[in-house]
Design goal:
The complex is a heterodimer of chains A (172) and B (569).
Chain A lengths: L6 E3 L4 E2 L4 E2 L12 E4 H6 L1 H6 L4 E5 L17 E6 L6 H12 L5 E6 L6 H7 L3 E3 L6 H10 L16 H9 L1
Parallel strand pairs in A: 3-4, 4-5, 5-6, 6-7, 7-8
Antiparallel strand pairs in A: 1-2, 1-8
Chain B lengths: L3 H4 L15 H23 L4 H9 L3 E3 L4 E5 L5 E3 H14 L3 E4 L5 E6 L4 H10 L16 E2 L14 H11 L14 E4 L13 E7 L5 E7 L11 E8 L3 H15 L10 H8 L1 H14 L2 H4 L3 H9 L14 H9 L1 H10 E3 L5 E6 L10 E3 H14 L3 E4 L5 E7 L3 H8 L16 E2 L14 H10 L3 H7 L4 E4 L13 E8 L2 E8 L11 E2 L4 E2 L3 H15 L6 H8 L2 H11 L1
The chains are: A alpha/beta (172), B alpha+beta (569).
């Protein structure tokens, strides 16, 4: 099992993390909470979903979200991978999970995302971020402070960026 | 004819045509500056590696060039106020070497910037609502449009309000800041395409249906660079209310499916080509159907609200024909010559759009000194409601000039050296910074532009040659759009030496076409002679009144090729 890395919530605060992440060729544990790579979930669906204690899936930026849609009701967490910070496909995964598929469970960004991408992640509806080795959580929460107040509503209820402000302008 | 004083507008109306920021807009860009200042601090302290800092500085317009940092400042859809223009002059004076370079994307670049000063520059620019957000990086860039928008006589719909909506939609869009590659949108509201929409990632033609309602035709996948492609039409009619929903759909398909394995194949044009335009259109329509209509709907009230934040010029009620203007035209041949190239018909009777050439004979295309920038700002206030535009041809437009004040304006252009009557002619050359500045370039562009400008500098001669667009790029990235120049010149590296490939017959207008190769690359000092040969053939074959591009289309490449081969012997 991968070691427990620091996990922060949408506000940048460190949160307790009970989840472990299964390596691609690692044996299934006897119980969760465990995050399973998409390929393993698809290959061993019944065995994985039978585990007690909570199941999450890790979806890579080059994998298709549609494959997990039927399984979403059985999951407690979707981890969206950012193999490189330049690879922005994870943003579309997160947005589609929230808006298109109405997923209300936890979405966790994992991998190489930068603190400067935190605001985008939060606005798209991410619940938590797993930081890289040795990363300072303060640089993440600091970004939020710099970028001003956040809309804490669920993503699906937030209008588009900037147009949100336009709408507010009307109301005023 | 001193009408200057009588048309000077009070300061309250001095910014007609400019989108006015409110407190929220202003707070947003100020916060961005502070965030960037903090990022620069982290870079200077070593907390951020150059690799990590790069996408952040690019998102704020800061490039690392051959000799220094370059800051590209956004001029949304090319429109700015005299006040903003003066701030650009100030930045040129205080932080650069006293000049700026206007670009083919209607922006301005400062070439000699110090990293530690970049946040201060952005803070100064923010004071007048200017920023450098998303002028580089793999995000949605500055939306470009017609430099005569809102003024042109042939315009069906003013595209600026939609350009502004697209700017607001794309700015800091959380989903689309890390696309496979950069993304450029252009929008036009006239049947005559002055914004090269078919050469953009998304090109938008604004028009009206039978009921007179505005709507859009959407082209996708156009672009230049090493794989030049003319865009494909994927939607013939898109109602205004669906504009953003459709943009979301296109961008989402691209963000998910665009190639990320090879930056040379990462633009949307490659995805569209590999997928097929028809199939790509289907994917977009599917995504469009998936997006909840309500959330992405662009309500008419929002359009109206944004429209209301644009100041409207307070046009005087004038007769269509000005006797004073007609008299000046008849009496002064130099003025008449300038008018013949450097103006554009206006939709309002008694007005005309004037183009200030930033292409003096032998000069550097698109460069302007701080003194010139300041002077142009003054003239904009005196003659054009305090508003001006940067054309993608790297010239400046005063869009709303009274015809009876045009002569007086023209006389004021002489002293600062901006009266060259060459807009659209062979010396109105579009050139990128080239190897003099850019670390991507294979060859210099500026000296080539200067040598052609000098060779054809004689005004009688260039007016006789007539409309002819020369575009010079220093490398395959095609920043100067050489593929669509009537004469396109591409700098290449030929066995370690700078050499130039020449193409003919490209056009960026509504009949967009890519140029055809004249022959093998030639050395820098041969370029003017080769162009001379091209002109010789044109003058020999042209029918009375026939433009270069029309002659080329009629006779084809062959006679030009023959002349080129003969010249090379």
């Amino acid at each position: 099992m991968a070691n427990a890395k620091i996990v922060i919530d949408r506000a940048g605060a460190i949160v307790a993390n009970a989840w472990t992440t299964l390596a691609p060729d690692e044996e299934l544990p006897s119980a969760g909470p465990v995050i399973v790579p998409l390929a393993r979930l698809l290959a061993e669906t019944d065995a994985v979903l039978a585990l007690p204690g909570g199941i999450g899936v890790l979806i890579g930026s080059d994998e298709h979200l549609e494959q997990i849609v039927p399984l979403l009701p059985n999951l407690a967490l979707v981890a969206v991978g950012f193999p490189k910070f330049r690879d922005g496909r994870g943003f579309t995964h997160i947005r589609a999970l929230r808006d298109q598929y109405g997923w209300a469970g936890e979405i966790r960004a994992v991998g190489d995302a930068l603190p400067d991408q935190f605001l985008s992640l939060v606005r798209l509806g991410v619940s938590s971020v797993e930081l890289g080795e040795g990363e300072d959580p303060a640089s993440w929460s600091g970004v939020l402070a710099l970028r001003g107040g956040l809309d804490s509503r669920p993503a699906a209820e937030q209008p588009l960026p900037l147009l949100r402000r336009l709408a507010a302008r009307f109301a005023a | 004819m001193d009408t200057a004083t009588q048309i000077r507008t009070p300061s309250a109306a001095a910014e007609a045509g400019i989108y006015h920021y409110d407190a929220l807009d202003h707070a947003f860009i100020t916060r961005r500056v502070e965030a960037f200042r903090e990022q620069v601090q982290r870079r200077l302290s070593g907390a951020l590696s150059e690799d990590e800092f790069k996408p952040l500085r690019l998102m704020n317009g800061l490039y690392l060039q051959l000799h220094a940092y370059m800051l590209r400042v956004a001029i949304p859809y090319g429109v700015l106020s005299a006040i903003q223009m003066r701030k650009l002059a100030h930045v040129a004076r205080k932080y650069d070497r006293d000049y700026g370079h206007f670009t083919t994307r209607q922006n301005i670049q400062f070439n000699w910037i110090k990293l530690e000063q970049a946040p201060d520059i952005l803070a100064e620019l923010a004071e007048v609502d200017i920023h450098a957000i998303q002028t580089s990086g793999n995000c949605i860039r500055n939306v470009s449009t017609d430099q005569f928008a809102g003024a042109a006589a042939d315009e069906l719909v003013d595209p600026r309000v939609y350009a502004e909506i697209l700017r607001q939609w794309s700015t800091d869009h959380p989903e689309f800041l890390f696309l496979p590659r950069k993304f450029k949108i252009a929008i036009i509201g006239s049947p005559q395409d002055r914004a090269a929409i078919k050469l953009h990632d998304i090109g938008i033609l604004t028009k009206r249906n039978a009921a007179g309602e505005p709507g859009f035709t959407i082209y996708v996948g156009g672009g230049l660079g090493r794989t030049p492609v003319i865009g494909s039409k994927i939607r013939d009619w898109l109602p205004v209310g669906d504009l953003l929903r459709y943009m979301e759909a296109v961008l989402r398909v691209y963000n998910a499916a665009g190639r990320r394995d090879n930056i040379y194949k990462a633009r949307i044009k490659i995805l569209v080509r590999e997928t097929g335009a028809e199939r790509f259109a289907e994917l977009v329509e599917q995504e469009f159907a998936n997006l909840s209509g309500d959330r992405f709907h662009l309500p008419a009230e929002v359009v109206a609200a944004i429209q209301s934040r644009f100041g409207a010029p307070d046009f005087a009620d004038l007769p269509a024909v000005s006797p004073a203007y007609q008299k000046a035209l008849a009496e002064n041949a130099d003025f008449a010559r300038w008018v013949s190239t450097n103006t554009h018909p206006h939709r309002v009777p008694g007005y005309i759009s004037a183009v200030i050439s930033l292409k003096p004979i032998g000069g550097i295309p698109g460069d302007a000194t701080s003194a010139q920038i300041d002077r142009i700002a003054d003239l904009a206030e005196q003659y054009s409601f305090g508003e001006l535009r940067i054309a993608h041809e790297q010239n400046v437009v005063l869009a709303h000039v009274r015809q009876d004040a045009l002569f007086s304006l023209w006389r004021e252009l002489e002293a600062p050296g901006i009266a060259t009557p060459n807009v659209g002619l062979i010396t109105d050359i579009i050139a990128c910074p080239g190897l003099d500045y850019c670390d991507l370039a294979n060859a210099r562009s500026i000296p080539i532009a200067q040598s052609i400008s000098e060779r054809f500098g004689d005004l009688d001669r260039q007016h006789d040659i007539g409309e002819l667009h020369v575009n010079i790029s220093g490398c395959i990235n095609a920043c100067a759009h050489h593929h669509v120049g009537h004469i396109g010149i591409l700098g290449v590296d030929k066995h370690g030496a700078e050499a130039y490939q020449i193409t003919l017959g490209g056009t960026a207008d509504e009949n967009a076409a890519l140029g055809q190769l004249l022959g093998a690359a030639v050395a820098a000092d041969e370029v003017p002679d080769v162009i001379e040969g091209v002109i010789r053939v044109y003058l020999a074959v042209r029918l009375p009144g026939e433009l270069f591009i029309d002659s080329f289309r009629r006779v084809g490449l062959a006679p030009f090729k023959q002349e080129f081969r003969d010249g090379q012997r």
